Amino acid sequence: MGSLLESQVGQKKHGQPWPAWHLQASISHQTVALQTLRLLQQQRDRNEGQSSTQHVSTAPRQASRREDQEKGKGPEEAKLRGEEVCVPKTRDPGQCKLAHVAVHTVLAHLVEITLQLVQVEQTILNRLHQELNFPVYLKDSVELRNICSHMGQQLEGQAFDQDLNAAYQCLKTVIEKLIHSLVSLPADVPALACIAPRQVLQNLLHL
């Protein structure tokens, strides 16, 4: 990775053309990230569906527990007999629900932005890059793919939430650098050639 960065910096300093394959490679890494994100969506949806089913199936057991307590077999009666009572700690269902909804929303948002970015690169930026050879920073797309791959090993929890935020920030960096590359093109490049793709990328940042 270090040699790749040195190559990019050297090309920029000496005005040498950027490798034409950088954009295609970036699209490839972003596509892998997108596939991983979609699989995560599907897996989490399945897990949430199973969790809902299990929640419904525990209702009879909870009713039975209440009946036992009414008959003097509950925790209070056990305490009177000197028996050890283990009361499971439960998280607030409302907080859990809100957390799941928030993660679901951010994940769906990330999938949508990544999909649109890949489409813009394939349909607009690819041809423009062949003509103008603007800088494409491959390392950010590689990092995005790696973060999403790590997310796939977590599925949920604090580590997953951290990766989700990191993936969003990394995707934002990819888009911002593409915009900067278009803005920084030489003055002799027709402005109209870059206005449309630049605006499309700007719109992605505000989705």
Percent strand: under 5%
Strand pairing plus helix content: what structural class? mainly alpha
Which word captures the global form?
Answer: elongated
**Share of helical residues:** over 70%
| Low-confidence spans | 1-15, 78-89
Number of strands: 0
Continuous helix count: 8
How many structural domains in the coordinates? 1
User: Helix-strand pattern, N to C?
Assistant: HHHHHHHH
- For the terminal residues, how far apart are their CA atoms? 31 Å
What is the residue-mean pLDDT, rounded to a whole number?
77
Query: Oligomeric status of the shown chains?
Result: single chain
Notes on the structure:
There is one protein chain. This protein is mainly α and 207 residues long. The protein has one domain. It has 8 helices and no strands. The chain has helices at residues 2-14, 21-57, 59-70, 75-80, 93-132, 138-151, 158-183, 192-205. α2 packs antiparallel against α5 and α2 (21-57) runs parallel beside α6 (138-151).
Structural topology:
Elements lengths: L1 H13 L6 H37 L1 H12 L4 H6 L12 H40 L5 H14 L6 H26 L8 H14 L2
Helix pairs in contact: 2-5, 2-6, 5-7, 5-8, 6-7, 7-8
List keywords for this structure.
207 residues, 8 helices, 78% helix, single chain, mainly alpha
In short, what is this structure?
The protein has 207 residues and is mainly α.
